[in-house]
UniProtKB/TrEMBL annotation:
Residues 12-21 have a biased composition (Basic and acidic residues). This is Reverse transcriptase. Gene3D superfamilies: 3.30.70.270, HIV Type 1 Reverse Transcriptase, subunit A, domain 1. The lineage of its organism: Eukaryota, Sar, Stramenopiles, Oomycota, Peronosporomycetes. It comes from Phytophthora palmivora. InterPro entries: DNA/RNA_pol_sf (IPR043502), Rev_trsase/Diguanyl_cyclase (IPR043128), Viral_Replic_Matur_Polypro (IPR051320). Residues 1-46 are annotated as: Disordered.
Amino acid sequence: MEPPGEYCTQRDVMREGRDAGSHLTQLDMSETCVEGQADSADEANDDPDVFEATHDAIPNNPEEDLRLRYLAAATSTNDDEPVAESDHRFAHFERKGETLHLEDYAHELAFLPDLSEEVPIELDYNGTNVKCPTHTPEQATRLTDLLKQNEQIMISSGNALPPPAYGVVCDIDVGDHPPIKQRARRVALKYLKPLYELLKGLLRAKLVSFSKSPWASPIVIVLKKNGVDIRLCIDYKKVNAITMIMEYAMPLVDDLLSELDKYLWFCSLDAASGFWAVMMTSRARRISAFGISNGYVCRLD
């Protein structure tokens, strides 16, 4: 396992970006660029069983690169074209909302957060959880000033993300097993736009980044209960099958109670979005990579 401090500065908190609600018709893009990207997408789909990642589009601008990939996929995908019975390789991997819900696959898939809409963090310093009637005016002012000084680590409701946790990292140990690279599953045209917005939000939050990892797990589009909104998931079944189980000796409850018996004050803290605040080692980021349309590989950061 690698030193935890090395990864604590690799992801900033969620930054203000472009409007996540922009539509395809609002994108200013030349016809030549669209045709060029569409040709590349067609070439990538010539052999769907071969999964190759290309990284020469716009290496210094991942959001713009993702936008071009989305345009190429939307141009090359014909949602009205039926799938030939003899060629199921091009079948869309989707399920109807009434048959596949989040709770059905909660223990089998890795669910990524929905960051398609940026939610500003608004803190109420006059709320009942801040103001105390027993405080003097001086104490109330000191408390408010202290909270404002540490505003960057405060988490509000919505899709706000915490800064990276310090002193802990996540690692995935697969031993000497060779990389498993599964081809990207084709996404139906009606889900391309929501998928693009989800990936764009994850890029802005620096939860994912483009990668040349030799590993790639497929994504799964899961419909929410309303049958319209989607949740982006990753199918790690093959990776989980070869991952070595990390043993951890759970402390006994009686021992904990005996240890706490001598204390007068207790504090209980719950990490906000704690799962996504834990950084990953370089090895874990490579192994957790997932494939999207047009042969691109993203990794979790």
